[in-house]
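Figure 3 (text version): structure tokens given as input.
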């Protein structure tokens, strides 16, 4: 039982740390400039995202706070009630919450989310967004294909 919490907290903590350190780097290095990684396809460019998702303003900070805290409580209660948690579910929930909390910290610290990975064919995003998406895929894989955590 304790082992799953150690894994959960380590993955969550590492994900949150990497998200915040990459955003700190982007704020220091990318202000006023961009770094092409694959000309015409992918570059690093600082963007201040005041929206909820894809730059759209769907919810305010308080709404995003309520959803993030609510999902965090739901995942924790689920893990307390279920002794057997699969690795995909554990990683998925850790990734998802690390990304969500990383973006939430940005909103309250700066009033926007720091985005800096900019593909030419998609919206600018950050490591927290990658963690959220990866977490959703792992959770969906486990719950939809196997019907259990």
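Below: residues designed for each position.
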């Amino acid at each position: 039982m304790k082992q799953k919490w150690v894994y959960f907290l380590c993955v969550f903590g590492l994900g949150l740390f990497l998200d915040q350190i990459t955003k700190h780097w982007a704020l220091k290095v990318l202000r006023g400039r961009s770094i092409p990684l694959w000309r015409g396809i992918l570059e690093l460019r600082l963007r201040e995202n005041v929206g909820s998702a894809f730059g759209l303003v769907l919810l305010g900070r308080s709404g995003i706070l309520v959803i993030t805290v609510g999902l965090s409580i739901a995942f924790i209660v689920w893990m307390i009630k279920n002794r057997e948690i699969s690795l995909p579910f554990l990683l998925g929930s850790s990734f998802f919450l690390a990304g969500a909390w990383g973006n939430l910290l940005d909103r309250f610290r700066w009033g926007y989310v720091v985005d800096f990975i900019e593909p030419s064919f998609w919206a600018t995003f950050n490591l927290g967004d990658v963690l959220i998406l990866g977490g959703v895929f792992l959770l969906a894989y486990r719950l939809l294909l196997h019907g259990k955590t």
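Residues 16 and 98 are 5 Å apart (CA to CA).
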